[in-house]
From TrEMBL:
Family in the record: Belongs to the peptidase M24A family. Methionine aminopeptidase eukaryotic type 2 subfamily.
Cofactor(s) of this protein: Mn(2+); Co(2+); Zn(2+); Fe(2+)
Residues that hold substrate according to the record: H219, H327
InterPro entries given in the database record: Creatinase/aminopeptidase-like (IPR036005), Met_Aminopeptidase_Type2 (IPR050247), Pept_M24 (IPR000994), Pept_M24_MAP (IPR001714), Pept_M24A_MAP2 (IPR002468), Pept_M24A_MAP2_BS (IPR018349), WH-like_DNA-bd_sf (IPR036388), WH_DNA-bd_sf (IPR036390)
Positions that bind a divalent metal cation 1: D239, D250, E447
Listed name of the protein: Methionine aminopeptidase 2
Residues that, per the record, bind a divalent metal cation 2: D250, H319, E352, E447
Function comment: Cotranslationally removes the N-terminal methionine from nascent proteins. The N-terminal methionine is often cleaved when the second residue in the primary sequence is small and uncharged (Met-Ala-, Cys, Gly, Pro, Ser, Thr, or Val).
Start-end of Basic and acidic residues biased regions: 1-12, 64-79
Reactions catalysed: Release of N-terminal amino acids, preferentially methionine, from peptides and arylamides
Length: 466
C-alpha cells in the first residue's frame, strides 16, 4: 500500500509542473498582458533555467521525479515477488518442486505441516434430515470450533493423502504392459516409502499393494517368485494405502490399456462418485449402497460382440477406518439393502466400489498373500518358538496393519511358513486370500477415503487424476 501511495503523490507533482509550463507558454503568446503576470513569468523562467530546464521541456526535477516513480514501481514488483515466494512456505503450496521420479519426502515439501486439503463438499440431506439442517453445518460457529479441535488429526491424514497422490501420479504414467507384477509393486512401494518418510509404525504403508487383474477383484499381490506379467488386454486394480500415526488413506484406481474396457472403468468410477455424494453425517449406510447400485447398473460394456451390464460385486463393500485399523466395524454396501446405521461426525470411510461383467459375486481363490493381525484377539498362548518369534516381528513392523509375505521377508523373516500357519490356525493372524469372480470376466474398482468433519465432508484422497 505504501508504495502505491508514493507513486500517486509523485504523479500529482508532475502534473502541477505541467500546468505551470502551460501558463508560461500562454504568457509568451501574449494572451496575458498583465505586468504583474509578466513579472511572475520572468521568475518562473529564471527558476527553470537555474534547474537546468527550458520552458516547454521536461526539466531536471521532473526527470528526478520520473526516476523516483520507476524506483518505486520496481520496489513494488520486488515485494510482489517476495510475497509470491513466501506464499509457498505458508502451507498454501509446496516450498519446493518435487523431482521426477519423486524422491523428496512430503514433510520436506511442506515444512510448516500444513498439507493440502482434499475436496470440500457440503453434507447432503439424509433420510429424516432436512436440507437446511445439513447446510447449516457449514456455517455453524459451534461446528467450526469442533473442527479446530481435531486439526492435528486432519494434518496427519492429509500428509498421508499427499504421499498417496504423488505416488499414484507417478505410477499411473510409469506402469506399462510387459512389466512383471512384482516389478510394479516394488516400484510403487519404494516410491511411497520415500514420500511418506517411512518410520516404523509412525509412518509408512498401511497394507500391501493390490494389483488384482481381470476376474480377480481384490487382495492379490505377488509373492516372491511370481512371474506374472501385465498384458495389454488386462484390467488391473491398483489398491494401496499410506498412513501417518495410524491415520490411513485407503484409495484405489483401475488401469486398462485397451480402450474397449473404458465403459466398464467409467461406470465404476461414476458409481464411486455417487457413493461419495450420498455419504455424509447422518446418511444411512443402506442409502449409500442404493445410490452406488443405481449408477453402476446404468452402464454396460460390449466385449467381443456381447453386451454386459456392469454389475456391482454385492459381497464386496466399503468400510469405516480407525487408527491402525483398516476395517473399523461399519460396512458401506454397494447394493440396495443393508444396515440403516447412520454415519457420524469425525468418522473416516473408504467409499469403495467394484463392478464386474461376471456374476457380481466373488470367492476365495489362488495363493494367499495378504495377512493381518486380528485387532480384537486377546492373548493366545503359543507353544512353538518360531510362532513367538514371528509374532514379535509382526508386532514390531506391522502391528495391526496388513502385511504380505514379501514384507515379512523384507523384515528379515525366513522359513516362516509353519509359524504363519500356526498363527492363522490359532486366530492370532487372519488370512485374506485373493477374491475372484468367474474366470473370463473383468472387474474394476475405484476408491476414495473421506472424512466426515463436523462442518463438511472432505474427500481427503481426491487428486487431479480422479
Amino acid at each position: 500500500m505504501a508504495a502505491v501511495k508514493e507513486v500517486e503523490d509523485l504523479d500529482k507533482n508532475a502534473l502541477q509542473n505541467g500546468d505551470d509550463e502551460e501558463d508560461l507558454d500562454a504568457v509568451e503568446e501574449g494572451e496575458n498582458k498583465d505586468p504583474a503576470k509578466k513579472k511572475k513569468k520572468k521568475k518562473k523562467k529564471k527558476k527553470a533555467e537555474t534547474e537546468g530546464g527550458e520552458p516547454g521541456l521536461i526539466n531536471a526535477t521532473q526527470k528526478i521525479d520520473a526516476e523516483k516513480i520507476e524506483d518505486v514501481a520496481a520496489e513494488g514488483d520486488e515485494k510482489k515477488k517476495k510475497k509470491k515466494k513466501n506464499k509457498s512456505k505458508s502451507g498454501k503450496g509446496p516450498s519446493k518442486e518435487q523431482t521426477n521420479p519423486p524422491t523428496i519426502p512430503i514433510a520436506e515439501l511442506y515444512p510448516d505441516g500444513n498439507f493440502p486439503e482434499g475436496q470440500i463438499m457440503e453434507h447432503g440431506p439424509a433420510e429424516g434430515i432436512d436440507e437446511r439442517t445439513a447446510k447449516e453445518r457449514f456455517s455453524s460457529e459451534e461446528k467450526r470450533a469442533l473442527d479446530r479441535l481435531h486439526q492435528d488429526i486432519y494434518h496427519e491424514i492429509r500428509h498421508a493423502a499427499e504421499a498417496h497422490r504423488q505416488t499414484r501420479k507417478y505410477m499411473r504414467d510409469w506402469i506399462k504392459p510387459g512389466m512383471t507384477m512384482i516389478q510394479i509393486c516394488e516400484e510403487l512401494e519404494s516410491t511411497a516409502r520415500r514420500l511418506i518418510g517411512e518410520d516404523g509404525l509412525k509412518a509408512g504403508l498401511a497394507f500391501p499393494t493390490g494389483c488384482s487383474r481381470n476376474h480377480c477383484a481384490a487382495h492379490y499381490t505377488p509373492n516372491t517368485g511370481d512371474t506374472t506379467v501385465l498384458e495389454y488386454d488386462d484390467v488391473v486394480k491398483i489398491d494401496f494405502g499410506t498412513h501417518i500415526n495410524g491415520r490411513i488413506i485407503d484409495c484405489a484406481f483401475t488401469l486398462s490399456f485397451n480402450p474397449r474396457y473404458d465403459p466398464l472403468v467409467k461406470g465404476v468410477q461414476e458409481a464411486t462418485e455417487a457413493g461419495i455424494k450420498a455419504s455424509g453425517v447422518d446418511a444411512r449406510l443402506c442409502d449409500v449402497g442404493a445410490a452406488v447400485q443405481e449408477v453402476m447398473e446404468s452402464h454396460e460394456v460390449e466385449l467381443d460382440g456381447q453386451v454386459y451390464q456392469v454389475k456391482p460385486i454385492r459381497n464386496l463393500n466399503g468400510h469405516s477406518i480407525g487408527p491402525y485399523r483398516i476395517h473399523a466395524g461399519k460396512t458401506v454396501p454397494i447394493v440396495k439393502g443393508g444396515e440403516t446405521t447412520r454415519m457420524e461426525e469425525n468418522e473416516f470411510y473408504a467409499i469403495e466400489t467394484f463392478g464386474s461383467t461376471g456374476r457380481g459375486q466373488v470367492h476365495d481363490d489362488m495363493d494367499c498373500s495378504h495377512y493381518m493381525k486380528n485387532f480384537d484377539q486377546q492373548f493366545v498362548p503359543l507353544r512353538l518358538q518360531s510362532s513367538k518369534q514371528l509374532l514379535n516381528l509382526i508386532n514390531k513392523n506391522f502391528g495391526t496393519l496388513a502385511f504380505c509375505k514379501r514384507w515379512l521377508e523384507r523384515a528379515g523373516a525366513s522359513r516362516y511358513a509353519m509359524a504363519l500357519k500356526d498363527l492363522c490356525d490359532k486366530g492370532v493372524v487372519d488370512a485374506y486370500p485373493p477374491l475372484c469372480d468367474i474366470k473370463g470376466c473383468y472387474t474394476a474398482q475405484f476408491e476414495h477415503t473421506i472424512l466426515l468433519r463436523p462442518t463438511c465432508k472432505e474427500v481427503i484422497s481426491r487428486g487431479d487424476d480422479y
